[in-house]
Amino acid sequence: QVQLVESGGGLVQAGGSLRLSCAASVHTLSNYNMGWFRQAPGKEREFVGAISWSGGTTAYADSVKGRFTISRDNAKNTVYLQMNSLKPDDTAVYYCAARPYSISRAYRDYASWGQGTQVTVSS
Predict the structure, then answer these.
(1) Segments in the chain forming alpha helices (H)
(2) Burial of 122 (0-12, 13-18, 19+ CB in 10 A)
(3) I want to staple 79 with a disulfide (CB 3.0 to 4.6 A). Which of 34, 40, 54, 97 is the partner?
């Protein structure tokens, strides 16, 4: 399994930006496709976006498309989630996750998870 640690969360005003990082303790992150998910209180964990092992393929939830961007630096074993034009509805704990084979929008397809980082967007 891959050990994942998220960072970069915090409190931001609506319209602001944050960049989350997900550092992986693994020999080579390029063996894994990465996903970002979020979970707000009382709600199910939902897909935010995903990126293939090479970075050549990305997918986003409709709710964040055009505002969020996923990227990765395999040399640094790190994946990023750039979040712009944040809205109060984006408030949640954000998790990164890893899986081999292909990207997926389903959280049950991911075996390795970080502990999460809190993002709070004030209105």
Answers:
(1) none
(2) exposed
(3) 34
Which amino acid, residue 51? I
Question: 39 near 95, Cβ under 8 Å?
Answer: yes
Burial (Cβ within 10 Å: 0-12, 13-18, ≥19) of residue 26 = middle
Nearest to 17 by CA among 103, 77, 80, 96: 80
Answer positive or negative: Cα dihedral of 14, 10, 118, 73: positive
